[in-house]
């Protein structure tokens, strides 16, 4: 069964200014959010993008969109809304979650996280001692994700999980954690972007 992956794109990055980083044009064409959708699909996943209904950009997104009615309350609320939607539609035993601002993330990294996913475990990729994305959450953790609220993301779910159920996946891909909060940081990351990300 194809695993779902949700890209969290419902928040506003104040530090990014007037520009919308989700639609940053990449050096080799296309925009960031849709590049991430394509990479996740090439990794074999069923991709959805989480949006705020007050900021409906779904017409420009190349994937089904989940609208979080509580997106304004923060990341945790957006995750909870997305999980409620996914849980009612999917019979998968795990799902992956990632943010929308990882321009260097490789297809193979997504694929390897998905390959380790299981119903009773959380898979967290690491590179050089730093935690990254996407993170896979087994179905056993979906109720906890659905109960999140406010601006607290999934870190609390990870913190409360038994260490024996957490799988740390070591990867040689700094793209799992190099995100872009400002136009300057995005510009710096895009200089590293290669034509083909494998």
TrEMBL record:
<feature type="domain" description="MobA-like NTP transferase">
    <location>
        <begin position="6"/>
        <end position="161"/>
    </location>
</feature>
<dbReference type="InterPro" id="IPR029044">
    <property type="entry name" value="Nucleotide-diphossugar_trans"/>
</dbReference>
<dbReference type="Pfam" id="PF12804">
    <property type="entry name" value="NTP_transf_3"/>
</dbReference>
<keyword id="KW-0808">Transferase</keyword>
<dbReference type="InterPro" id="IPR025877">
    <property type="entry name" value="MobA-like_NTP_Trfase"/>
</dbReference>
<keyword id="KW-0460">Magnesium</keyword>
<protein>
    <submittedName>
        <fullName>NTP transferase domain-containing protein</fullName>
    </submittedName>
</protein>
<dbReference type="GO" id="GO:0016740">
    <property type="term" value="F:transferase activity"/>
</dbReference>
């Amino acid at each position: 069964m194809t695993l779902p992956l949700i890209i969290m794109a419902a928040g506003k990055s104040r530090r990014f200014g007037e520009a919308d980083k989700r639609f940053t044009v990449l050096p080799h064409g296309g925009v960031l959010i849709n590049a991430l959708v394509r990479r996740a699909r090439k990794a074999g996943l069923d991709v959805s993008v989480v949006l705020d209904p007050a900021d409906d950009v779904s017409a420009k997104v190349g994937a089904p969109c989940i609208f979080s009615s509580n997106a304004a309350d923060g990341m945790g609320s957006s995750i909870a809304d997305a999980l409620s939607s996914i849980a009612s539609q999917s019979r998968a035993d795990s799902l992956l979650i990632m943010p929308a601002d990882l321009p260097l993330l490789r297809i193979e990294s997504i694929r390897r996280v998905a390959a380790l996913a299981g119903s009773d475990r959380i898979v967290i990729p690491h590179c050089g001692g730093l935690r990254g994305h996407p993170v896979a959450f087994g179905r056993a953790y979906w109720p906890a994700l659905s109960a999140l609220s406010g601006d607290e993301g999934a870190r609390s779910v990870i913190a409360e999980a038994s260490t024996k159920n957490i799988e740390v996946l070591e990867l040689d891909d700094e793209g799992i954690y190099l995100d872009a909060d400002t136009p300057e940081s995005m510009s710096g990351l895009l200089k590293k972007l290669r034509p083909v990300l494998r």
